[in-house]
Each structure stands twice: as structure tokens, then as C-alpha cells.
Amino acid sequence: MKKIVVLSILSFALFFSGYSQKIDWAVLKKELVGTYTGSLKKGLADGKGTAKGQDEYTGDFKKGLPDGVGVYTDSIGNVYTGAFQNGRKEGRGIMVLVGWKEDSIVKGYWDHDNFIGDENIVPYEISNMTGSIRPRIFNQGVGNKVEISVMDPFRHKPIFKGVTIFYTGEATPRNDNFGRFYYEDASFPLDFNIRYTCRNKIGTVRTEKAIWIKINKPGSWVITLEN
């Protein structure tokens, strides 16, 4: 009986040690690798916690990275208080920059660790849509290109004939043999006025459709127009 009681106490202690123990492998952001105190999930920082390495961060974590709201102090002493996503400053925040004579304060919005100004810029805009169109727009990551596909609902493949795309901005256009249109080496924002005709799902009627899409932020964008 005594052995059972001792084992139960040890198990209880180990369970709660996962919440507050100091460890050096729970954080994936290299600048914060050192010690971590806080909650864990599957061996990674997740929830509230504090990480201290070259830099220091206290706040919300998700899957080993700052994600949510927190306070980040870099090795120089600059302090950012605000929103994070996937380990980067993302959203509204306040940065206090250490100066030689006096500190300066920067308030506004960040995107992928970069300050973008006092106003939050939406990634893309859609307007002037004619006909039944289901646009799917997503950013695959870092880059400066846009890929556009207009889907045939009857064949379930991209269509090429009957598609006209006018764009405003700087980019190098090209297309392949599979009905995809590419705009590479792009400078954003980039506006697209897309017009086309396509069949209905049973292939009996052709209809004219149009949509205007503006991509505001840099990236490797993929636009798929379902019909």
C-alpha cells in the first residue's frame, strides 16, 4: 500500500511539473532558446509562458512559438508589446526603441515582423463580381508572384480560351499549357480585372462572368476561380 501511495504522489508531481518546469527544448524560435517556464503541450511551449535566451518573451505560445499577445525584449533592449503569429510580430503593437539620448515609440501594425504603418492593410480585396463565382485566394509564403486559374465546372479543369485578364501594376505575365496564368517579378499592389465565359456544371449553357481582385501584400499568391 505504501508503494502505491508513493507512486501516486510522484505521478501527480510529474504531471504538474509539465506546467511550470524550466526546460531548454520547448521553444522553436532560436533567439529564445535557453530556458522556458510555462505550460506545455506535446513537449512544446503552448499557452502562457516565459522564454529566455538571447532575447526574452513573456506571453502566449502555440506549438513552441510566440502566438497571441505578449511582450518581447530583444538583445539590444528594444521592447515590443502586442500581437504575434507563428513567432513573428503580426498585427497591432507598440515598439519602444532604445536610443542613445532618449527612447522612441512606434505604434501601429506589423506584418511578418515588418512595421507597415498606422493602418492595417488587408491582404487582398474583391469587388465588381458578375455571375456566380467562388474565389479561393491564399498566400503560399514569401515571394513576388501571382498564379491565376479559372476552373471549368463541367470538366473540373482550368480553362484557357475565353479568359481575358487586364492587370494594373508591374509584373511579367506568362501562361502555361494547362490554363494557368502567371504574373512574376511583381510589385504590389497589383490589380486584376478578370473576364471570361464558362459552361454550367452540366455543360449546356455558357455564361459571362467578371471579377476584380486587388492583391495588396507581397507573397506567392494563388487565385482559383471556382464556377
Description:
The protein is elongated, with a radius of gyration of 25 Å. The N and C termini lie far apart (70 Å). It folds into 2 domains: 21-117, no CATH class; 124-226, Sandwich (Immunoglobulin-like), CATH 2.60.40. By secondary structure, the protein is mostly beta strands. Mean pLDDT is 86; it is low at 1-20. A hairpin with a 4-residue loop joins strand 12 (144-152) and strand 13. The chain has one helix spanning 2-20; strands at 22-23, 35-41, 44-52, 56-62, 65-73, 79-85, 88-97, 104-111, 114-117, 124-130, 134-139, 144-152, 157-158, 163-175, 180-199, 206-215, 219-226. Strands 1-2-3-4-5-6-7-8-9 form a 9-stranded antiparallel β-sheet. The protein is built from 1 helix and 17 strands.
Layout of strands and helices, then pairs:
Blueprint: H1 2-20, E1 22-23, E2 35-41, E3 44-52, E4 56-62, E5 65-73, E6 79-85, E7 88-97, E8 104-111, E9 114-117, E10 124-130, E11 134-139, E12 144-152, E13 157-158, E14 163-175, E15 180-199, E16 206-215, E17 219-226
Parallel strand pairs: 12-17
Antiparallel strand pairs: 1-2, 2-3, 3-4, 4-5, 5-6, 6-7, 7-8, 8-9, 10-16, 11-17, 12-13, 12-15, 14-15, 15-16
Structural class: mainly beta
**Helical segment tally?**
1
| CATH-scheme architecture of the largest domain | Sandwich
Shape: elongated
Which parts are unreliable, with pLDDT below 50 for 5 consecutive residues or more?
A: 1-20
Distance between the ends: 70 Å
What strand order characterises the main sheet? 1-2-3-4-5-6-7-8-9
Largest sheet: 9 strands, antiparallel
Number of strands: 17
CATH fold description of the largest domain: Immunoglobulin-like
Order of helices and strands: HEEEEEEEEEEEEEEEEE
So what's the CATH class of the largest domain?
Mainly Beta
Count of folded domains: 2
Percentage of residues in DSSP E strands: over 45%
Helix amount: under 10%
- Alpha carbon gyration radius: 25 Å
pLDDT average, as an integer? 86
